[in-house]
Design a protein that fits this description.
elongated; about 425 residues; 6-stranded mixed β-sheet; binds zinc ion
Length: about 425
């Protein structure tokens, strides 16, 4: 079987013929010349319609999917057409994409692998560069964003994610209804403007069909959501509320542990951080014993821990009315604890009570971990050493891994 037989099987182009393949670059490449078919028409790259040939340009090389780990290159002398509509233009060839040195098939091949491996690994394995892999991924993402269908989205989650060093944030919007939890939008920063851009891009009719919006307590988001999707039930994510309470508890424990150490007491609070934070059911035997021991002491940390545990009961109510009753009771008790971080948490709860209670109205639709699970995936992407030098690159990577974007159709799947 000849290489051209395979090429004609997997990638046949009506108006072109494959010539005889030959070795190139000291037998490190297979070069496949391509020629236009005699009566085939040239296509104008401006309007995508046939046009008469004007002249010929120099020969171009197009990288194709490697064969047996040997690079494959298409050689083709590009023509220019004299188009009635567009004037003199370079022709459009079906295997190429604009000025890119990668064929369409190779680009899709690299982008597909880039979902499973890091971009530098893909570049290393298939003998190309990181920049080429990035271009391939970017192109697939652009295609996907252009062709995706977001008409069925009725529930979204808005969240902020910290990335890189310092205080850089990303605003993420996810689809939460239906089978796929997917990333819909990434914006730089976490201002009202960042989120407004998302609603603006989606258009007013789309915003009006939203039934649920889930978010954290970040004020600019709350404002924008109230303005742009006022008909939707706005829910505060349970995960974020629990995280705030845990932060308060950690603060109390850490400062008390320091104080005890300073005063020379035996270190009762040593190694208790996770005993306090973890769900009691998930504690190891050792942690359980440690916790049992520590709970005997009259400590601020113990009081905070007991408050945190009793807060969990709140989520078990099914009626918003009784949930609200419990919440108020809990807040009054928490205020008497005289623990400043806890009192601060109570302030937050009191400010957001209405949105917190919306959770009970929508509880059948969402599991508490919907946004949390996606956040974990985002962190995996941002931490992976792809060499993300800029927001643009990170954005492409996030859409590629979390966007569930449609992919261009191919005649043959290489991977
Ligand atoms: Zn044209």
């Amino acid at each position: 079987m000849l290489i051209t037989t395979v090429l004609n099987h997997i990638e046949k182009h009506k108006s072109f013929v494959y010539g005889k393949p030959r070795w190139g670059k000291g037998r490190k490449q297979i070069e496949v010349p391509i020629a236009p078919r005699k009566n085939g028409q040239a296509i104008c790259s401006g309007c995508q319609l046939p046009a008469p040939v004007y002249d010929r340009l120099g020969r171009r090389r197009f990288n194709y999917v490697p064969l047996w780990n040997i690079a494959v290159v298409f050689l083709y002398t590009m023509r220019r057409v004299n188009c009635q509509r567009c004037g003199v233009k370079v022709e459009k060839v079906p295997w190429g994409r604009g000025k890119s040195p990668l064929t369409r098939s190779y680009s899709i091949f690299l982008a597909t692998w880039a979902r499973r491996l890091s971009w530098s690994e893909v570049a290393g394995i298939f003998g190309t560069t990181w920049n080429r892999v990035f271009d391939a991924v970017k192109e697939m993402v652009e295609y996907g964003l252009e062709h995706r269908d977001i008409s069925g989205v009725t529930a979204i989650g808005v969240d902020e994610v910290q990335h890189g060093k310092g205080h850089s944030y990303l605003t993420m919007v996810y689809q939460l209804n239906g089978k796929t939890r997917r990333l819909l939008y990434v914006g730089q920063g976490r201002t009202a403007k960042t989120l407004l851009r998302f609603f603006h891009d989606c258009g007013k009719p789309w915003c009006l069909q939203l039934q649920f919006v889930c978010s954290d307590m970040w004020k600019p988001y709350l404002k924008v959501i109230a303005k742009k999707a006022s008909q939707a039930l706005h829910i505060l994510d349970r995960y974020h509320i629990v995280a705030k309470l845990n932060t308060a508890l950690s603060e109390i424990r850490a400062s008390e542990a320091r104080k005890l150490r300073r005063e020379g007491y035996e270190e009762v609070l040593k190694h208790t951080k996770y005993c306090f934070l973890k769900n009691p059911r998930n504690l190891t035997v050792k942690q359980k014993l440690k916790l049992k021991d520590v709970l005997k002491y009259d400590l601020k940390s113990v009081r905070a821990y007991l408050l945190k545990e009793s807060f969990q009961v709140f989520w078990q109510y099914s009626s918003p009315y009784w949930a609200s009753w419990y919440l108020r009771k809990w807040c009054a008790r928490a205020m008497r604890s005289k623990l400043d971080p806890i009192k601060k948490f109570v302030g937050t709860v009191r400010n957001h009570e209405e949105l917190m209670l919306n959770w009970f109205k929508a509880r059948k639709q969402f599991s508490s971990g919907a946004v949390e699970g996606l956040n974990r995936k985002v962190n995996l992407v941002t931490r992976k050493s792809y060499g993300f030098r800029s927001f643009e690159v990170l954005k492409v990577a996030l859409y590629h891994t979390l966007g569930h974007l449609p992919e261009p159709e191919v005649a043959h799947r290489f991977c």
